[in-house]
Design brief:
By secondary structure, the chain is an alpha+beta fold.
């Protein structure tokens, strides 16, 4: 081959692999023209841990390279790199020297590209910069080019700015408020009082009042307004509005102008938000709440999961979509309890496990527990199955005394009571019914943990029973044992270990029952500021893992517990491998136990 053709050949190879697939062909050819080709025999060192960075970034063209942590004895294998992977990118994230020793695991051909030239590309290509920034740590914010704006990026005020809110005093007669509403052409108006927005009157409120006989049209309009007022600042995003309206059950929200709290600037209704979505999430929730048949609930459940998948654009979308998914699960449970004839008796229904942590985005049935005197709840599980949930099980039942006894047994004698199998019940969260029994149970659990300090040590040690894989290599998952498989056990090797270790920190920091993995890690980060980086990176990792579980599970109609590697792009695998290292670091810190003295 002629020498002049070599840069084009190298460029053709580079553009097949991230982050170079984001760079123009002309820039790749220029980069390749200033590089060189290097060959290393098996076991030859390419760079040494702690040594100054060479002037090149190496891209594996053929063969494989192993990365070793030689700061421990014996040295520990940290990763295996194949064709298209890079050695030395960590310099662009502040690493003053090589983080690992790189050694040829076979005869290997490398493209040595000038580091200074790659640094210039980072300035010109933001997505290349984002990719490179994920080398030593996980980022939940990466997204591909050409994606439409997400609901967590769109300002609500920008969608309703051209439609000022119709306003009426809360004390105005119903007839006057109804006239103003009809003349405005809107479906809601703000009711104002001395403290600002006192409520929102909707067209549905007026129609309901008419249907009930239109009694006393001279009464204050605030008396027929059913929904509570939800106020949002002008900086609120569409995602903020959806979550606020979903959690409050409000059919509209008021956007208030900073510095002028006397009246709302705009009213946001579900119809006003429709341009940001396909199917509308709030409409789905309203229809679920009114559904009277399981076949209707099944259709609405399908719509909800399809909508979640459509808007699951990146890991940064996970938090608010998980909150929305929790509202879907709660409303369907309420309807299922009613349809199964189990809505009496004063029982308190709870979620636990992933649903208790608000981390269940797939159509897997939420794990249920009941605190109360009732018995015989399998009919609820049957209704959930008819609604399209996967693997619904009968709830764990018991009155308050039984639940206290169970938790006391797990905490005081965790070995004989097989507490290991009951850890998800420490994610218990009330969702349907009065929560006073739960609060009493939670206080009891806190008291028991305080009296048994050894419990947290055992709980922390149990976290080491399941570890993330070592790496991805070619089209295989490499486990710590050296075993290879073509399926990624995402739940068992990443999601569950993260939830388990976060649960330990959450309980140790006085967080009680329930709480998301991210919230528990954030709480620990505040109480243990010396480990801020470890907790922050692991919280980002949790988002990434839940994103892939949700996306894979919703696409495949499964739990997402195991994913074929074909679903994961090169970039996905790159970020996941960084996440594995973050999980290992936090597990090692949790097992040290020294931190217990600090909290």
């Amino acid at each position: 081959m002629q020498t002049a053709a070599i840069p084009y050949r190298v460029a053709d190879f580079l553009k097949q692999h991230p982050p170079f697939d984001l760079v123009s062909e002309s820039d790749l050819v220029s980069l390749a023209a200033r590089g060189r080709v290097k060959f290393h025999e098996v076991d030859e060192y390419i760079c040494w841990q702690g040594s100054p960075h060479p002037p090149f970034v190496y891209v594996v063209q053929q063969g494989s390279v192993s990365l070793w942590d030689e700061s421990v004895d014996p040295p520990r294998l940290r990763d295996i790199l194949g064709a298209g992977d890079s050695v030395g990118l960590e310099r662009f994230n502040g690493a003053a020297a090589s983080l690992h020793s790189a050694r040829a695991a076979s005869d290997v051909v490398l493209y040595a590209l000038p580091a200074a030239d790659i640094g210039n590309l980072l300035e010109r290509y933001p997505h290349v910069r984002t990719f490179v920034s994920s080398c030593p740590a996980v980022t939940a914010g990466f997204e591909g080019t050409g994606q439409r704006p997400r609901p967590d990026e769109i300002a609500v005020a920008g969608m309703v700015r051209s439609r000022p809110a119709p306003v009426c005093p809360a004390s105005a007669p119903v007839r006057e408020a109804a006239r103003l509403l009809a003349e405005s052409g809107e479906t809601a108006l703000a009711l104002t009082g001395e403290g600002g927005c006192a409520g929102i009157l909707t067209a549905d409120d007026v129609m309901r009042w008419v249907g009930e006989g239109a009694v006393d049209p001279g009464q204050p309009a605030c008396r027929i307004a059913r929904g509570s007022a939800v106020s949002l600042p002008t900086t609120a995003r569409v995602s903020d509005c959806v979550v606020a309206m979903a959690e409050s059950g409000a059919s509209a929200a008021a956007v208030t102008v900073e510095g002028d709290g006397s009246s709302p600037g705009w009213i946001v209704t579900p119809a006003a938000l429709e341009p940001a979505f396909g199917d509308h999430p709030l409409s789905i929730l309203r229809e679920i709440a009114m559904a009277r048949r399981t076949e209707v609930l099944a259709v609405l459940h399908d719509r909800a999961r399809a909508w979640i998948l459509d808007h699951l654009a990146s890991p940064s979308s996970v938090d608010w979509l998980a909150t929305y998914s929790d509202q879907v699960n709660r409303l369907i449970l309420e309807r299922a309890v009613d349809l199964a004839g189990q809505d009496g008796g004063g029982n308190l229904w709870c979620f636990y496990g992933a649903a208790g942590r608000r981390e269940l985005l797939t159509r897997v049935a939420p794990e249920l527990a009941v605190i109360g005197d009732g018995r015989g709840f399998p009919s609820v599980a049957a209704v959930l199955a008819e609604c399209g949930y996967l693997a619904p099980a009968s709830p764990v039942e018991g009155d308050l005394a039984e639940w206290k006894s169970r938790f006391s047994g797990w905490i005081r004698d965790p070995i004989r009571t097989r507490m290991y199998d009951s850890r998800p019940l420490f994610d218990l969260r009330p969702v349907c019914g009065g929560d006073a029994p739960f609060r009493e149970l939670e206080d009891h659990v806190r008291s028991e943990i305080a009296s048994e300090p050894a419990f947290l040590r055992i709980l922390a040690n149990d976290c080491l029973s399941s570890l993330p894989p070592l790496t991805f290599f070619r089209d295989a998952v490499i486990e710590e044992s050296g075993r290879q498989t073509d399926r990624f056990r995402l739940e068992a090797s990443a999601v569950d270990p993260l939830a388990d270790v976060a649960r330990v920190f959450g309980l140790a920091c006085g967080g009680g029952l329930g709480g998301s993995t991210r919230a528990r890690l954030d709480r620990a980060r505040r109480l243990l500021p010396s480990q801020e980086t470890v907790f922050r990176e692991t919280a980002e990792t949790a988002q990434v893992m839940l994103f892939h579980q949700a996306r894979g599970g919703l696409r495949l109609g499964s739990s997402g517990a195991e994913l074929p590697l074909s679903l994961l792009s090169r970039y996905d695998r790159h970020v996941l491998k960084s996440g594995f290292r973050s999980i290992h670091r936090l597990l090692a810190f949790a097992a040290s136990w020294d931190w217990l003295e600090a909290v």
